[in-house]
Design goal:
16 strands; 9 helices; six-stranded antiparallel sheet; globular; alpha+beta; seven-stranded mixed sheet
């Protein structure tokens, strides 16, 4: 399921392919509706009605690109949808409307010393789709079209997975699995749109659900690379899911944070915390929507996040499944 989800293209504002896949998987297992922004709000009936309303949340969109101009020679100007470092884009193959293009820039042989040391920007990058002029390019692409990293999905090394869109198709997969299982308590599940451009979908779905407790299933930055030490690593692949106490958007509920960490310890589940106050996820919108909600984030450590070659560890996915299973025994109390 994860491979199918990751290979679907669905940047912010263009999530329909993932939404259709999600619905095909959960139809018949729960009640669901699609809100005006395009998010899926699902309600799974459990054996019992809980005292507290609990919601799980993940986002369907991925980072990508949008076409902003086409010059007379047929080259495409573009910008990012979501946060992308231009350095991971140069030289990559890009997928647009069923055709492929290459992101090009001036060759190194022609760069001045100042240009060699300058930071890349999207203003300097162009997509070459092989068109001879603007008219030929317009036969395939128009302004406002979305574009995506061309990426395959494969397993390598010691239980590692490489793909685009692991942020946050892993969260979507885990929620689909929960919806298909037998639950002890009634639970809401929100598959949100437009997380990467400002948590927009979550703002709407959380207002509609008005949950007391919300658990966000996400991916987060792992910088466990050679030469990166201490807290700058943020988290590490293979050390289990990440339970955050704070990030750039949210101060997480201390009781839920402690509950998650104690639950992991009591059941010998590998778990780690996020050692940098950076980034954010849908919890930032959910926490302050409507009457407010207590929030907890459980995230997969992900190397090279927001690129066409993100990497996660299969063992971390399994440890996350274990943690969620145990949390669902105590979170409704």
């Amino acid at each position: 399921m994860l491979k199918e989800l990751c290979l679907l293209n669905a940047t912010s504002g263009d999530e329909h392919k993932v939404r259709e896949f999600v619905i095909s998987q959960i139809d018949g297992y729960c009640d669901y509706k699609v809100d005006n922004l395009g998010s899926v709000i699902a309600f799974k009936k459990g054996k019992n009605k809980p005292l507290k309303k609990v919601m799980f949340s993940a986002h369907m969109d991925e980072v990508g690109f949008i076409i902003t101009d086409i010059d007379d020679k047929g080259y495409l100007s573009f910008d990012c949808v979501g946060g992308i470092n231009p350095n991971v884009v140069a030289g990559r193959t890009i997928h647009i409307n069923g055709i492929k293009g290459v992101v090009g820039l001036k060759p190194i042989h022609l760069l001045s010393d100042d240009e060699k040391n300058a930071s890349l920007s999207f203003k300097k990058l162009r997509i070459d789709i092989g068109a001879g002029n603007k008219e030929e390019a317009l036969e395939h692409v128009k302004l406002g079209d979305f574009a995506y990293f061309e990426s395959d999905y494969y397993e390598f090394g010691n239980d590692l997975i490489k793909s685009k869109a692991l942020d946050d198709r892993i969260g979507c997969m885990l929620m689909i699995e929960l919806i298909k299982s037998d639950l002890e308590y009634d639970t809401y599940f929100c598959f949100n749109v437009q997380e990467e451009v400002g948590l927009r979908g979550a703002l709407c779905t959380s207002y509609a659900v008005q949950s007391d407790i919300s658990i966000v299933l996400e991916s987060t930055t792992a910088a466990d690379l050679d030469g990166v030490n201490g807290a700058q690593k943020v988290c590490s692949l293979g050390d289990g899911p990440v339970v955050s106490f704070m990030d750039g958007r949210t101060i997480y509920d201390k009781t839920l944070y402690s509950l998650a960490m104690h639950t992991a310890k009591n059941h010998t589940i590998n778990v780690q915390t996020k050692t940098a106050i950076a980034g954010g996820n849908d919890a930032g919108a959910i926490q302050t929507s409507g009457k407010g909600s207590k929030v907890l984030a459980v995230s997969l450590p992900c190397r090279y996040i927001h690129s066409g070659a993100s990497v996660v560890n299969k063992k971390d996915i399994e440890e996350t499944r274990k943690l969620i299973k145990e949390l669902m025994k105590v979170i409704y109390d």
